[in-house]
Specification:
There is one protein chain. This protein is an alpha+beta fold and 92 residues long. The chain has one domain: 60s Ribosomal Protein L30, Chain: A (2-Layer Sandwich). It contains 4 helices and 4 strands. It has helices at residues 4-14, 21-30, 45-49, 63-69; strands at residues 16-19, 35-39, 55-59, 78-83. Strands 1-4-2-3 form a 4-stranded mixed sheet, sandwiched between helices. α3 (45-49) links the parallel β2 (35-39) and β3. The chain starts with a helix and ends in a 9-residue tail after the last strand.
């Protein structure tokens, strides 16, 4: 089991990550998203889960906690990993 918080921070710092619901949807539609991470309280969690061939992980925390896990000073309800950088997030 990987440390999802550490992997998210590393991916945000060294890889290519799209933050926010609109950017995540766009990445999913374009087929760029290798992994989608949704906060447990993401308002569109149920509709997104059936929409994509990308792997989806539900973060066991709120959007505020997901933002903090990524090292951002704002809440994040969804994010898409386009490139993992130096993280092992894709093995989540």
């Amino acid at each position: 089991m990987i440390d999802i918080v550490r992997a998210l921070k590393t991916a945000a710092a060294t890889g290519e990550v799209r933050f926010g619901l609109a950017e995540t949807k766009k990445s999913m539609k374009n087929g760029e998203a290798k992994l989608v991470v949704l906060a447990s309280n993401c308002p569109e969690k149920d509709s997104l889960e059936g929409q994509t061939s990308s792997k989806i992980v539900v973060f066991q925390g709120t959007n505020v906690e997901l933002g903090a896990a990524c090292g951002k000073p704002f809440s994040i309800s969804a994010l898409a990993i386009v490139s993992p950088g130096e993280s092992n997030i894709l093995s989540a």
